[in-house]
């Protein structure tokens, strides 16, 4: 794993440059995108670079990691809504080229069609990830099988608790989500994981220095040949 450590603004700007390089070489690249508070500085930088004409997403396609079950794109806590408002409306990507898993899939067989769609688009060139306090990537909670493709998950209490701040009460936080699997993520040609703040320091240590283990899903990224972690000093503070 490659590590890039600096201020959040600095490493977010460096992460943004990866899109400038990739889309410069391959304008129709396939991008795996993520929600959460972590990528917001990166998304703001991409909007700025796009407005300045330094990057174009006009021919790119995007596939998001995950979505809550039962929320449609008009719900302000759906991940489709998040992406539209925090990125897609501020860059030149074509709305029809943006994909977020449907929050209305009825079973895993239907959910897995997302992998087939990604494959048909040529596979993900660059996958962006955040990391949960328990090491989840997407909504792949601890002990998710290494071979998993896009599937429905029951959210852990800790994840629902962590996300409750966005809803009016814990009861309103959906109980299930649909997420790319670990295998879906590992198939990406390159992966970038961003993590900021002291709250992520312990899990970053396990991700980088622990044995690859499904108990810490992000640690499995050690088995991928092109992964870069973009960390602020606080998130990197427990690395030796
Ligand atoms: P965060 O969430 O970016 O809001 O910290 C990350 C995650 O849970 O994957």
Describe this structure in words.
The chain has one domain: Rossmann fold. Helix content is 30%, strand content 18%. It is built from 8 helices and 10 strands. The strands form 2 sheets. Strands 1-10-9-6-2-3-5 form a 7-stranded parallel sheet, covered by helices on one side. It has a 3-stranded antiparallel sheet with strand order 4-8-7. Helix 1 (8-25) crosses helix 2 (40-51). The two termini are 14 Å apart. The model has no long low-confidence stretch (mean pLDDT 97). It binds 2-phosphoglycolic acid. 2-phosphoglycolic acid (PGA) is lined by residues 36-38, 130-132.
Q: Rg from C-alpha positions?
A: 17 Å
User: What is the total domain count?
Assistant: 1
Let me know the number of strands: 10
For the sheet with most strands, the description reads: 7 strands, parallel
> In the CATH hierarchy, what is the architecture at level 2?
3-Layer(aba) Sandwich
Structural class, by secondary structure, is alpha/beta
Report the sheet-strand fraction: 15-25%
N/C terminus separation: 14 Å
Name the helix and strand elements from N-terminus to C-terminus, one letter apiece: EHEHEEHEHHEEHEHEHE
Gross morphology is: globular
Number of H/I helices: 8
Q: What small molecules are bound in this structure?
A: 2-phosphoglycolic acid
CATH topology, by name, is Rossmann fold
CATH class value: Alpha Beta
Tell me the helix content. Answer: 25-40%
Q: Could you name the ranges where pLDDT drops below 50 across 5 or more consecutive residues? A: none
Query: Mean of the pLDDT scores?
Result: 97
Strand order of the largest sheet: 1-10-9-6-2-3-5
